[in-house]
Amino acid sequence: MDKMIDAGRYAEAVPDEAAPIAYRRLSVVIPCYNEAPSLKVVLDRVLDSPYTGEVIVVDDGSTDETLRIAQSFNDPRVRTFAQPINIGKGAALRRGFKEARLDYVIVQDADLEYDPHDYGRLLAPLVSGEADVVYGSRFIGGEARRVLYFWHSLGNRLLTNLSNALTNLNLTDMETCYKVFLRHIIQSMDIEEDRFGFEPEITAKVAARGLRVFEVGISYNGRTYAEGKKIVWKDGLRALYCMARYSTIWPTKAVERFDGRTPSESALSLNLTDLDEAALNYTDWIVSLCEPHLGNHVLEIGGGHGTITSRLSVPSRRIVTTEISQQSIAILRDRFETAQNVTVEHCAEFELPAGKFTSVLMINVLEHIAEDEEFLALTKTRLSSGGNIVVFAPAFSSLYSDFDRRIGHYRRYTRSELTTKLTRCGFSVIESRYVNSVGALAWWLVARQLGRIPTTSSLTAAYDKVFVPLVSRLERNLHPPFGQSVFVVGKKTD
Asked: I need a labelling partner for 44 at 20 to 30 A (CA). Which of 186, 265, 348, 450 fits?
């Protein structure tokens, strides 16, 4: 599947053979976070390459002059995009790959560790039709490299060897920045990792597709932490997790029909009933996250059986709760018949009640809507100036199970994906986090691996009683990099 090639051969061949074909056919994606000291030099070097056809700079919420420097370039090949908050290198690359327009796509760090003069030799196996993906290795060939940390080098080699064992590749440098792809290949891949986990994730997915992988020796001028190096030991642990997660194919087992009703109707009913009866701590946890952002006039979309509504209902707050299910409407009206501050309305899909609200609340609703971004834009019309949209939804497509499909989930979200959609709809994101990290592992085991119904009351009650109080307390100040759900709050911007 993969080959190690003679870097010298391509170094000699590029000027005469590859350059005319690949001239300005390379999209260079540069993720940036607080790289003001080096970005201008890097961009000058990238633009100086005869292969560079466009440069896509994605600023990942920098707090220094990085974004201004990128935007100051007058070259029409430079396009700049700004992430609303600092999410991570993987999220920035995901945005950059989506924006690429040319035949070949390369990752370029915004520091001075990697030299764009290597573009020619990296492109040569792609131009010749021998490769689908090319990795630039810091550990092969006779190029100069700066001597730095022994333990970093050892860690890189250990991670590469473990990745090789799981993917059956024989790379020498899995963690390298320089990875070059045919554009249609990288744009067809679903990048899930937000931070440095991108490297083992993309390697595993490249291997799983059986793509032709080449390695080319490159130069390397590593930097110290004093010079701005950002990767830390925790990123190594994340890399190990990503190898286990992406390098093994886990088939999804089918879920049996639950009763005489359609699977989605039965599963949804079971899900809501169990939430009412067996997940009281978890419901309180969700409410505690939402409460600070709601205000005194709330539009709750998808009230279900009223579990959340009843906890939010206080005398000083008016709540309009909606549902598309006639069965749920009957339950809600019966439950809140005497509540003067709660109004229940039946709304068809893509229909919202009239009025202006201080907040729009969607808990486990958005994943049921096919045109989710259009619906988010619609909710903005119901918010008063400065109002908040509060979204709680299932996280990570890798956790998507047959159970999700049967209860009508179109998707599960990453934090960066949901943040980006809200931003495109005109919201300013003021909070985003993953929720219930332990629950994510339990969901992966029960729903993905065992193919069981993940909301049976006995399992839910046990988890709710034993784990939820501990996990919620732990995640109060420590935001995990993954979770069973994602929580995002956006403020309406005029």
From this structure: 186
Report the interhelical angle of 233-246 vs 150-167 (nearest 10°). Answer: 10
Structure tokens at 157: 């080699």
Instruction: Judge whether 106 and 180 are in contact, CB under 8 Å.
Output: yes
**Beta-carbon contacts of residue 289 (< 8 Å; ≥ 6 apart):** 392, 435, 487
Q: How far apart are CA 319 and CA 331, in angstroms?
A: 16
Least confident of 46-50, 52-56, 147-151: 147-151
Which residue in this structure is represented by tokens 């764009």? 116
Crossing angle between the packed helical segments 198-208 and 233-246, to the nearest 10 degrees: 20
Residue where the block lists tokens 């931070």: 195
Closest CA to 464 of 309, 284, 311, 266: 284
Q: Which residues does residue 450 pair with via DSSP β-bridges, in sequence order?
A: none
pLDDT in tens, 406-461: 788 999 999 999 999 999 999 999 999 999 999 888 887 777 766 665 555 566 77
Residue 66's nearest CA partner among 116, 111, 101 is 111
Eight-state DSSP code of residue 291: G
Backbone angles phi, psi at 399, to 5 degrees: -95, 0
Contact in structure between 88 and 194 (CB atoms under 8 Å): yes
CA distance 139 to 132: 21
d(CA 398, CA 404): 12
- From the number of C-beta atoms within 10 Å of its C-beta (0-12, 13-18, 19+), residue 258 rates as middle
Structure tokens at 168: 């059956």
CA dihedral 298, 418, 411, 248 (to 10 degrees): -140
- Token pair 């993309």 is found at 202
**Do residues 348 and 325 make contact, with C-beta atoms less than 8 angstroms apart?**
no
- Residues 126 and 25: their CA atoms lie apart, in Å, by 12
- Domains and their CATH numbers in the chain: 2-246 (3.90.550.10), 263-492 (3.40.50.150)
CA 191 – CA 36 distance, rounded (Å):
27
Encoded tokens for 255: 């879920």
Query: Cα–Cα distance between 351 and 324 in angstroms, integer?
Result: 9
Give the DSSP H or E segment for 388. Answer: strand 383-394
Task: Identify which of 121, 105, 120, 124 has the alpha carbon closest to the alpha carbon of residue 184.
Answer: 105
The conformation of residue 449, written as its DSSP 8-state character, comes to I
Length of the chain: 494
Determine if the pTM surpasses 0.85.
no
CA within 13 Å, CB half, 436: 25
